[in-house]
Amino acid sequence: MAMNTSAKQIVNNPSETTVPSYTLSVAPMMDWTDRHCRYLFRQFSRCTLLYTEMITAPAIIYGDAERHLAHNPIEHPLALQIGGSKPNELAQAVMLGNKYGFKEINLNMGCPSGRVANGCFGAKLMTLPELASDCIKAMLDASDSVEITVKCRIGVDDDNPNQVLPKLIERFSNIGIKRIIIHARKAYLNGLNPKENRTIPPLNYGLVYAIKKHFSELDVCINGGITDLDQVTYHLGQGVDGVMVGRAAYQDPIRLLSEADTIIYGQPVHDSLDQALAKMVEYIDQEVTSGTPIRHITRHMLGLFTGQRGAKIWRRNLSSHEFMDQEGIQGIIKTLELLKAFETGVPLFEIESN
Q: What is the tens place of the pLDDT at every residue in 154-195?
């Protein structure tokens, strides 16, 4: 099946160049980047840094930490994103997170939803620099060897980002933050809902580039409106250290991730598309056998064949409760074979299902 080949490879000799995992990352996305979604992404890219959904510090401390933090080792490199505004709770959450082997623990200072604004975390923290500093200090003090990072917007509501963002980043750098992810849009806590905040505020990539030039010692990652590997390589060429993609990876993971290891990291592709899909079917079979409802996994797979012949049938079958309840994992196998037959006339693969 077709894969993107237009992006310029940025690493020519992986034996001579070590590319950090955060050079390309997939953003934390609420209700999307759970463990099943991350397992799917990992079939297409071994190197890209993945993030959990944002998990609030109280949920980790007072809820089921194992359910929130446990994950399959194949998901690594993996980062944990935490939301909160109470330094003592964030510290406790970090101490619990330390035990699960995350590559980094990230403080959410960019989420614009009303719920997080009312709770004084997410993007609201950008308007409270003293509190934000206390939160970061507490997380840094509680961490062992796990890096603490921050994800933020360029400003909030009536802020002048050119004035506010550099001061905020200088403050965080002085505390001890070494890497920051910047969504190159303002967050409007009054007047726009979360969906509108992802698209309506104009992108200001130039400010993020300027931040990197001014704070050359910091690793700066850019986020917002980035939809393909050509754009990823362009931003890297402007001097930033990393690029974070979001919904484009979820909506069309094969196109965005299947060549990332080669183009971004200079590493060989480990599996063919057919092999990757076969491993995903095996994973689903194991999860269903252990009691996971199949739709908890297949809901993340609807965008796999976006733009390809048979994509409509794929989405229809996997999103049909009646079809999936009746066919189960065989429904996935049959639909994959049908899509392959559309393209080549040859069955996609043979899998023995328990």
A: 999 999 999 999 999 999 999 999 999 999 999 998 888 888
% of the chain beyond a pLDDT of 70: 90
User: What phi and psi, each to the nearest 5 degrees, are found at residue 154?
Assistant: -80, -15
Are residue 309 and residue 246 in the same domain, yes or no?
no
Angle between helices 273-289 and 35-42 (to 10 degrees): 150
Mark which of 232, 263, 294 sits at the end of a domain: 263
Of the three residues 229, 263, 297, the one that is the final residue of a domain is: 263
What's the total number of domains in the chain? 2
- 297 to 32, 77, 288, 311: CA distances (angstroms): 10, 21, 9, 18
Q: Does this model's pTM top 0.85? A: yes
Cβ count within 10 A of residue 16: 8
Determine the 3-state secondary structure of 304 from DSSP. coil
Q: Which residues are catalytic?
A: 111
CB count within 10 Å of CB 22 equals 22
Sign of the Cα pseudo-torsion (334, 335, 341, 346, in order): negative
